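Think of the structure tokens as a kind of shorthand, similar to the way a musician reads notation: each symbol stands for something richer, in this case the local conformation of the backbone. In the example below we present two proteins back to back. Begin with the first one, reading the sequence and then the tokens, and try to describe in your own words what changes along the chain.
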Amino acid sequence: MFNRWHPQLALRYLPIVSWIKKQGLINSKILEVGSGSLGIGPYLNRPFTGVDINFFGPSWPKMKQVKGKAEKLPFPDSSFDVALSVDVLEHLPRANRPKAVAELFRVSTKAVIIAVPCGAQSQLQDRVLYQEYQAKFGKPFPFLEEHLTYGLPKMSTVISWIKAAAKSYRKDINTQEQGNRNLSLRLWLMHGWMTRSVPVNFFFRKILLLFLPILFLLARKPPHYRQIYFVKIN
């Protein structure tokens, strides 16, 4: 197992990899927008392109790193078979989110995958975790700061962005939604993520990975923190 794996990341990415395989797209030309230095790499385990504004941290060797912004991707139209965005839209100002979704459709020919936390319950949990992190470490939680500043979108709003983008680029689509990460499970995992304890950190990053099948079953139960939108382009 890759030494940076964590159940939080596995629960986020493995359903996406599973869908890509089921659609027969595993050997396709794949782009991840907002990949960071690892992205889907440890779970996909094949070459892909990642675009982000920076690539700090350990790098996934099979990822081609390209610097760029989600709202204006540095690629020609139809450059990739599959374009995906995982936990990116909530970090963008609201006005820029439809543009980022449209860019995914512009550069893809077979599928678009968008994973994003949605709804008031998810927003409330982010606020609670932000306050706990600040109390524990004496500084803001950078990962959640933009969630609170810009707000999480509604599920219906994400669907409207997808429909508008597909219409703009004259693409016939089929969209499938899937809830991702039970809120209570996510809260527990985030507490493990935010720990100062070495044994607790080891448990969450190493031992707990042995129980991923059980975690997947628990993660399916609503209410969910995140929604994944699987869009097949016909």
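Once you have a description of the first chain, move to the second and do the same.
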Amino acid sequence: MTTARWLCVLILALVPLAPAAAAEATVEAVQSPAWVNRDGLRLPLSAGAALSNGDEVVTGVNARARLRLADGSIVKLGENARLRIESLDLAAGAKRLLRGTLRVLDGAFRFTTAALDKPRFRRELDIEFVTVTAGIRGTDVWGRNFPEREVVVLIEGEITVTPRGAAPLPMRDALTFYQAPRTGAPSIQPVPMDLLTEWAQQTEIQPNRGSLSTSGRWTLSIARFDNQDDALALYDSLRRDGYPARIRPKPVAGGQRYHVRLEGFASRAEAEALGARMREIYPGVAPEPMRR
């Protein structure tokens, strides 16, 4: 292994993340496996990571991601989702304006705005699905590309839905949903509460599934190696599979020991949950939770 290769790993482990103020979005929490596609590279999605225009966030099976945009609004992604940050810009001023486009390529998506942020910001966002665009001006919206239809749910506020090649449709009634079947006419109708509850859970971080967050103080030590190359082999496998692993070298008598670990669990239970999954996926590892 080259010195340059090892230096890259150390930099990734030790250099602070880009400040949130400089980013179009920041990863607040992630239930792995998940990735970000950037400049031709596929990187594991990590809590605290800064996202920029052009980035594409991808979640895997049973995965979730929660992103915070520059104005404080929240974007949530369900499993097997893909979201591309096409263009986001937060303009300065007395009442700042967030404008731009988010493209939902696959899976379930939710956009929410905190009550405290509503008076301080204006929003002119377009959420693009495959055949439908939802224009958001400050609201709570859920949507998904189902195999047989596209759905956009207005939970609160108002939006404008524009089907491809058709006139815009204003939606001002909360708890209604627009659906566009692959064949047949679109419609707007009230959403049953039990269905909304089911859909909303598809984009929520699930408890005790090993999620990582920016406020988490627990670490999962997945394995320890005396050999640098062995540590790197597991590190590469984890990151390729969508887990933001790090290597922490620690001096021991006669050399170094290399700890491959995941950081940012909110509790011991969260770390143990992912540790159990690690033992199934990577035979021979012995995950151990520890408080940072």
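Compare your description with these statements about the second chain. The radius of gyration is 21 Å.
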